[in-house]
Amino acid sequence: MPILDLFNLTGKVAIVTGAARGLGTGLALAMAEAGADVAAVYRTDPGDLQAKIEALGRRCAMIQADLSSPSAVPHIIEATLTALGRIDILINNAGLIRRAAVVDFTEKDWDDVIAVNQRAVFFLSQAAAKVMIRQDNGGRIINVASMLSFQGGIRVGAYTAAKSALLGITRICANELAAHDITVNAIAPGYMATDQTAPLRADEKRNTEILARIPAGRWGSADDLKGAAVFLASAASEYVTGHTLAVDGGWLSR
What we know:
This protein is an alpha/beta fold. The chain has one domain: Rossmann fold, CATH 3.40.50. Helix content is 43%, strand content 15%. Helix 5 (157-177) links the parallel strand 5 and strand 6. Helix 3 (72-84) packs parallel to helix 4 (107-135). The model has no long low-confidence stretch (mean pLDDT 97).
């Protein structure tokens, strides 16, 4: 098969969580641009995402769900199958961040972050994998990790804990699902210009410090993740599993 054909996702159905804005919107559009139909999971107003996906000639199912609730997982799976008929790709992108010093971090903030960033990732992966196994045509699961999967950070204890756990979840799922031709990988974005990082970019001192460490010399954007996501979602990455790919402008190499 010609190499570029390996990246074609035509006929595939991709679930993307946290699709309403930022990186999630970019990932949902990347799947559609590569040919996949998309189940876009959102909690707040998704704007014109559906129109953008359909303008690319792809089907789009908009699924509202609160991933902090255990009932979200079966709802997302059932709604995707009803609207689009199958599940081939899952991108666990939705995330929540709460900022406070370690000595001040509350149990509620801890539980809220872990529920979305860790628990939901595992159980949505589990549910999607069951469908993929039943379909008997392989599949792709992509978790969105973070630079804080590798580093401690400051004032984001629960976020760091959850994103560090994603490396382990990615590996255990990769180990157990490989026999079903399901690959499980992660993308670790570097410092991206999103709503979550707005407080950092607004802090002149922290913004300067961060940019000084990024060899590429700029904050990343949602478009910077598209190539990595399509690669990991496609046949081009058939022999890649259990891996976490940093898309960070060189941050980790500094």
